[in-house]
Amino acid sequence: MKTYAFVIPSAFRVNAILRTGIRTRLEKEPNTNILIISPFAEDDAFRKEFPNALHESLPKIPLRFVRRIARARELLLTVDKKVFVKSRLIEKSVMARRAVHALPWQDNVLTFFRTVLYPLRPALAWLCNKIEERLFYFPSLFQVIEKHHPTGLVMGTMTEPDDIVWLALARRYNIPAHVVDFPWSYIENRLWAVPRPAHIYLWSEMMREELLSNFPFPKEKTHITGCARYDWYATTFPTIAKEEFFRRIGADPSHHLIAYFIGTPYWNPHEHDTARLLLEMIEKGELPKNTQLVARLGWKLAPSDPFLTLKEQYPNFIIQSADDLPHQEYPSHLVYYSDLSLSTFSSLALDAAVLDRPHIFTALSGFDALHPDDAATARIFEYEFVKNALATEGVKVSYTLKDFKSLITSAVSNPSQGATGRKALAQKFLGTIDGKAGERIAQSIIALNA
Asked: How far apart, in whole angstroms, are the C-alpha atoms of residue 154 and residue 358?
């Protein structure tokens, strides 16, 4: 009997991994069990959604300890290519809320140190992996392994704390590990150090070339399959009728709708000001008067006081929380049924491109005049993967108030405008979406565990 264990540390991973063809295809294999290791193991609704699976609660890990060890590995094994130096400078700009164009001397010292040690990098990577295997041998985790003896581990990434410890356990027990949710931004702004050993499932040849050209990683452990979380757009989507969806979110289906996806204040602390600008445009008639604005707050974000104040002032303003409505059907249908969606910076631009709906990135702070923070926010759009997206013209950026108003009014009045660019954006990053990426990932996992 084979057992495939899915490591699901968050509601986001439920959407990105469990609710895809990966699990459903593996479930069809004869003599196969699906084990879901998650914080939702005792949730009746969750168990009911996945009735054919075995469930184990995700053991708690000492986060601070794991992060410190992972940070030490990153400092030692970071790849100092120009693209990653630039990525770190963008990150520092966002943190400092000003444009930063030079690394501090401490970073330069570390870069010199890594350059001297470069010939030893393979040995250092091996040593770091062994240290993690030794230090992350937590009893609560290996008890799950000893109980179920999984044939393979399926997880989202290789840098989040829960993924790191399970990868270490997989190496220790010689269990194949499969990283199946590699986001479009992952290589450039999350994976700076030599990757940990695992099978990686990538969206396209472009993504594989980017990975292999920047990191020492065996090509045979990379697999081009497409992205499973976009499969349903080619099969069953939409799954909720417009009237029903609007009823669920408290909106009027006979009115216009704009969706604003709110990210962490880390990227842009002024998104409430941008929401205010939108509401004022509606109030002044610059947008149709019967337009509703939905602000969907990202994971673990509570509505700030400025958002709550806007809610009191404008009856056409709806606040929605990813934590309260975590199912992927909400952001996906919100993109689909809106005249326009916006974000400071989100991969939902790809969802909008696939669904042929306009999406705008907002680089401004939300004030009538330029704000000192604008320069830092604008640095986000210098990431190479974002520049590649913008080059297709499938998503636009508003850097100034004039751009902002022009792009929004144009998109609302003529939503078909930009369709060619959106098609190019989806094709560039996702290739042909045939609804079978999850099945291809599962087939590869099955073959590797044969």
From this structure: 34
